[in-house]
Amino acid sequence: MTSRERVKLTLEHKEPDRVPVDVWGSASRLCNDLYLAIVKREGWKELGPAVKVSRSGDYVDDRISDMVGSDFRHTHVGKPKYFKKYTNDDGYLISEWGYGTKQVNGESVIAYNPLASAEVQDIEKHSWPNPEDPGRWEGLKEQVIDWHENTNYFIATTSVISGLMIDIGQYLRGFEQFFMDMYINPEFAHKMIGKMTDVITEMHVNFLKPFGKYVGWVEFSSDHGMQDRSLLSPEMYRKFLKEPYRRLFNEVRKAAPNAKIWMHCCGSVRELIPDFIDMGVDILNSLQPRAAGMDSFELKKEFGNELIFHGGLDIQGGINGSKEDAVEEAKLRIDAFAPGGGYIFGPSNHFMQDISVENFFAVYETAREYGTYKRIKKEIKK
Fold it and tell me: Where are the alpha helices (DSSP H) in 225-370?
């Protein structure tokens, strides 16, 4: 069975030969320390071709995809051609969205919110990203067509931007102010969310136009949860964000008619999952198992007929200890999500520096061997 066939069966809630495995997606990249340790171990003289793909890591290397048996190839959005980040007079590194970051203890943190004091009339005046900047998609059509015609990998996009309306709203307005607006300044909140939705939708549609018909799913990264609860109550989410997300996903489906909607969402989001399904999410990541209400077995039981599950490996302790612990963690997530199909193996977020090279390869080896449906069916019969 080819990788493309394996993933397609999984997306139909059917059982292929084994659980598909994924790496280098929007929530399954390797931090620099781990990646460079693998490069050193393998004795490679050259690094991966894609650089600066996320805050968690600078590289993408499909040599590692082949080593772990990944069933995927992912596009990676390019940098804007007509905008370059710059440092303003106050020392903030300004993004194309206008918010500014600073280095604090070696980490990049958002420290400048350009719309913090804005009024409704200021929203349109803000300098928004150019959705037609070709730098984001230049060269990708040729790459995607080559994968489609000359390989058997399943093709997916990674996130066009890091975050969606609920995330970027915090960057532009400030974390507290953005959520306060929904209670005390709803006119501003609706206007700002609507404008962000317009820009983000146009960015995605333009990105997908050259190659959307070849893509099997489109990835979105948007965090809605904390460790113990969702960022917003379901009632407030439905009032301000659900319809904008639905609008975005509907337009993306038009640009990529064969694609599923994949969404990464950290934290405790159990009470929002019915809304995710209703607004068009097909595949849910990250399934953070230590967050409140996110028990893997319960999620599969309740939503397994409506969602494809992606990820779930515990990076808050599950695969950070001994190799034996990591192997047992991989088996646990397969036991929870795989029966009946509808599960793609991967981490609940990027592989960070506290995960060893040995554990990284061990969990994928476990997925390939323990994740066979021949074995799973035999265990269920017992």
Answer: 234-240, 242-255, 273-279, 296-303, 323-337, 357-370
